[in-house]
């Protein structure tokens, strides 16, 4: 007898980018971040059900234990997860300062995005959250820092998405000292990468 599965609204393609540092990009890829990501990105598999999602998450290494810049990417229907593919979009960034906060935060954000709570509760049923990035970002002050990025195809929802995710994190028991949340436009980052590329 087979157990019932619960299909996600859309399939999400999971891929992995190993540790990617400014030095690797500068010396191995002549400063071209997009080229570096494309060359190093490892396709893994589609996640189509709730059960596959949590089985996959439970089988992955803990984010805070990966090398700085190591990133898992979930892309709805395998959309292009590049800044240029989101001309009217933005991203909501969540930095989680310790391993315990990261574990709870990943659960909240994955449930909200892949479970379509954001689409239903914030975006009037529209699927504007198309990419989710989970990255290791340790630094001297926070050696277990994890960054979650929710990429939106429509920047007009950014404020409401930010408030929704913040509320979910607090309801999951995180204190305001365990995370920071904000918005970062793709336009600013695209310009920064263009300038970096021009300098090399």
UniProtKB/TrEMBL annotation:
It holds the Pfam family IF4E. GO terms for molecular function: RNA binding; translation initiation factor activity. Keywords: Initiation factor, Protein biosynthesis. InterPro entries: TIF_eIF4e-like (IPR023398), TIF_eIF_4E (IPR001040). The keyword Disulfide bond does not apply. The keyword Nucleotidyltransferase does not apply. Coiled coil: none annotated. This is Putative translation Initiation factor eIF-4e-like. It comes from Trypanosoma rangeli.
């Amino acid at each position: 007898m087979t157990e019932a599965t619960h299909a996600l609204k859309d399939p999400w393609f999971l891929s992995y980018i190993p540790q990617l540092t400014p030095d690797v990009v500068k010396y191995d890829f002549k400063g071209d971040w997009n080229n570096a990501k494309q060359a190093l990105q490892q396709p893994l598999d589609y996640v189509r059900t709730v059960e596959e999602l949590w089985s996959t998450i439970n089988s992955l290494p803990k984010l805070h234990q990966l090398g700085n810049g190591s990133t898992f990417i979930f892309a709805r229907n395998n959309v292009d997860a590049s800044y240029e593919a989101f001309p009217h979009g933005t991203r909501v960034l969540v930095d989680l300062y310790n391993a315990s906060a990261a574990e709870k935060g990943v659960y909240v954000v994955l449930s909200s995005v892949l479970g379509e709570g954001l689409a239903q509760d914030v975006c009037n049923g529209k699927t504007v959250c198309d990419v989710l990035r989970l990255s290791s970002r340790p630094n001297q002050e926070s050696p277990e820092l994890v960054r979650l990025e929710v990429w939106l195809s429509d920047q007009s929802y950014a404020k409401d998405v930010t408030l929704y995710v913040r509320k979910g994190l607090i309801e999951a028991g995180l204190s305001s000292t365990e995370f920071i949340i904000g918005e970062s436009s793709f336009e600013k980052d695209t310009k920064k990468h263009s300038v970096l590329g021009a300098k090399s």
